[in-house]
Amino acid sequence: MMNRRCLLEALAALAASSTGLGCRCNTGVFSNREPVLRMPFPAGAVVLCLQGNASPEGRTHSRFNSLHALDFSNNSVAELPVVCAATGRVAFVYSDSREDDFDAGEGFGNQVKVDHGNRYWTYYAHLDSVKVEVGDVLESGQRIGTVGATGAAGNRHLHFSLHNATTQGLGAPATIRMRGIVSADISIGGSFDLRSGKDFEAGSDEIWSGHLYGSENGSNPPLFGAPPKMLAHDLASSLEVLNNEVAARAELAAIGRRWGKMGPESARQRLQAVLDRVPQHEVAGLWWAAMVAIPQGDWADAEARLSGILSMSHHSRKWEAWLAPWAHYFLGIAAKAQSNSEVARAHWLTAIRTTEEKRLRQLAMRELDEFERGSGFH
Fold first, then answer.
1. Are residue 107 and residue 213 in the same domain, yes or no?
2. Residue 285 scores a pLDDT above 90
3. Do 69 and 200 share a domain, yes or no?
4. What angle do helix axes 358-373 and 323-337 make, rounded to 10 degrees?
5. Strand stretches in the chain, DSSP E
6. Mean of pLDDT over the chain
7. 249 in a domain, yes or no?
8. Are 110 and 145 in contact (CB under 8 A)?
9. What is the reported pLDDT for 17?
10. 220 and 362 in one domain?
11. pLDDT tens profile 137-158
């Protein structure tokens, strides 16, 4: 990923060389009436492509109803609006997801389907809030809702896909390839172009390694080429903050993989470096409790950090929907060490009930098995 200075210089050069709005798409559709899409975020927004088109076996986008979908996220803003990717009519809305219901909306949580004609429709899933109703006619760039983590999202992101089928009912039928989305690959300093869904670069081994993409959605008609000065400034500002979050999250993922293998002092040094850049980072707080406070018997510090994670709203957990179950697990560990067996048991049961992670479920169940046998709880 290009560094911040090079990126800002590239965007400034693009803006300076721009002679207007560049090429314009006047029809908004391909010859078979498939809509030309734009990024489902307001102009100036920058998002990380977490998961892309035709993901390998084992990832959720290897399934027929998500095969050509794209997952986008931005952890650097408290609320990320979702907007319509093409002119259309709202054909389906589901907005009744509960925070702890992974099956809500057939796993897609709060969702909106926008009909673009000729059976083509775009799908916006895992939404936090929904701002439209069935029958609303939307122009490209009009607000649909906000990015969330409802259903089986796993983290806060927008699931975005194109379909050619009936819009009736929850969930999604088979996806189709998105032939054209107007976007700029900000990771390489690119200008706005019409790229297919398969051209979006998602994370490979680590979802945080995906490319960053900018939106021009809001101008009419779509913008191609170099962004004008004001848009270039907005993109650069969004990118700077998001880059800091992506770098922090990648480092925390590496630290998390060393849980149980790294001493408290080494963990302290590496986590402090992250916290110096991004103070109050929730994931850093979790690993500090697990890798520094608990091993050193600093129960007050561990419980304060973990309880702080649990006190955050679902909305505030940003990318990290997995944080709360792990916080319950580690609170159970701290309670066990202090002989608070019933408190420990309650936390582990909550972790099992609220997680989708096989590893965490196994760890919590192992602790519960020991509890039931009465081993180490007296």
1. yes
2. yes
3. yes
4. 20
5. 37-38, 46-51, 70-73, 81-83, 88-94, 110-117, 120-130, 137-138, 143-147, 158-164, 181-185, 193-195, 212-214
6. 86
7. no
8. yes
9. 37
10. no
11. 999 999 999 999 899 887 889 9
Among 186, 185, 198, 193, smallest CA distance to 61 is for 198
Which residues 6+ apart lie within 8 Å of 54 measured at CB?
Answer: 61, 62, 67, 68, 198
**Do the Cβ atoms of 143 and 96 come closer than 8 Å?**
no
Distance, CA of 269 to CA of 287 (rounded, Å): 12
Residues in the chain: 378
Residue 345 near residue 368, CB atoms below 8 Å: yes
State which residues form the domain around 59: 4-238
d(CA 68, CA 160): 9
Q: DSSP states of 213-253 as a string?
A: EE--BTBSS---BSPPHHHHHHHHHHHHHHHHHHHHHHHHH
What whole-number distance in Å separates Cα of residue 95 and Cα of residue 104?
9
Cβ–Cβ under 8 Å, residues 198 and 177: yes
- Examine the domain organization and report whether 274 and 347 are in the same domain: yes
Residue 215, pLDDT above cutoff 90: yes
Q: Quick one: tokens of 240?
A: 């700077």
45 and 128, same domain (yes or no): yes
Please check whether residue 186 lies inside any domain of the structure: yes
Q: Identify whether residues 154 and 291 lie together within a single domain.
A: no
27 with 155, same domain?
A: yes
Tens-digit pLDDT profile for residues 55-88: 666 667 778 888 999 999 998 888 999 999 999 9
Kindly report the backbone phi and psi dihedral angles of residue 276, in degrees, each rounded to the nearest multiple of 5, phi listed first.
Answer: -65, -35
Q: Which of 179, 174, 143 is nearest to 37 (CA)?
A: 179
The Cα–Cα gap between 61 and 202 comes to 11
Pairing of β 120-130 and β 137-138: unpaired
User: Looking at this protein, which amino acid is placed at residue 201?
Assistant: E
Evaluate whether 100 touches 351 at the Cβ level (below 8 Å). Answer: no
Tally the domains of the chain. Answer: 2
